Amino acid sequence: MAKVQLYTWSYCPYCKRAKEILDDKNIPYSETIIDGDGQKKRELYQKTGQNTVPYIFIDENFIGGCSHLEELNKSEKLNKL
């Protein structure tokens, strides 16, 4: 099974939606909440070029945010994880 890692803010609706998608598919994930952690946010931005949460990695490959996860879900690629 693929390893899914989320970096989220606790109050972010897109983060909540990403977790709902994964939960609905019964895909396990690890979550790191980065509320107020400016250093971690900068590191993730430098690594990904994305400035918004959630940051979603599958098998250590950055796939994007919630909209990217929704695209994978609609194309049924999440079913292969």
From TrEMBL:
<protein>
    <recommendedName>
        <fullName>Glutaredoxin</fullName>
    </recommendedName>
</protein>
<dbReference type="GO" id="GO:0045454">
    <property type="term" value="P:cell redox homeostasis"/>
</dbReference>
<keyword id="KW-0249">Electron transport</keyword>
<keyword id="KW-0963">Cytoplasm</keyword>
<dbReference type="InterPro" id="IPR036249">
    <property type="entry name" value="Thioredoxin-like_sf"/>
</dbReference>
<dbReference type="Pfam" id="PF00462">
    <property type="entry name" value="Glutaredoxin"/>
</dbReference>
<dbReference type="GO" id="GO:0015038">
    <property type="term" value="F:glutathione disulfide oxidoreductase activity"/>
</dbReference>
<dbReference type="InterPro" id="IPR004045">
    <property type="entry name" value="Glutathione_S-Trfase_N"/>
</dbReference>
<keyword id="KW-0813">Transport</keyword>
<keyword id="KW-1015">Disulfide bond</keyword>
<comment type="similarity">
    <text>Belongs to the glutaredoxin family.</text>
</comment>
<keyword id="KW-0676">Redox-active center</keyword>
<feature type="domain" description="GST N-terminal">
    <location>
        <begin position="2"/>
        <end position="81"/>
    </location>
</feature>
<dbReference type="InterPro" id="IPR011900">
    <property type="entry name" value="GRX_bact"/>
</dbReference>
<dbReference type="InterPro" id="IPR014025">
    <property type="entry name" value="Glutaredoxin_subgr"/>
</dbReference>
<dbReference type="GO" id="GO:0015035">
    <property type="term" value="F:protein-disulfide reductase activity"/>
</dbReference>
<dbReference type="InterPro" id="IPR011767">
    <property type="entry name" value="GLR_AS"/>
</dbReference>
<comment type="function">
    <text>Has a glutathione-disulfide oxidoreductase activity in the presence of NADPH and glutathione reductase. Reduces low molecular weight disulfides and proteins.</text>
</comment>
<dbReference type="InterPro" id="IPR002109">
    <property type="entry name" value="Glutaredoxin"/>
</dbReference>
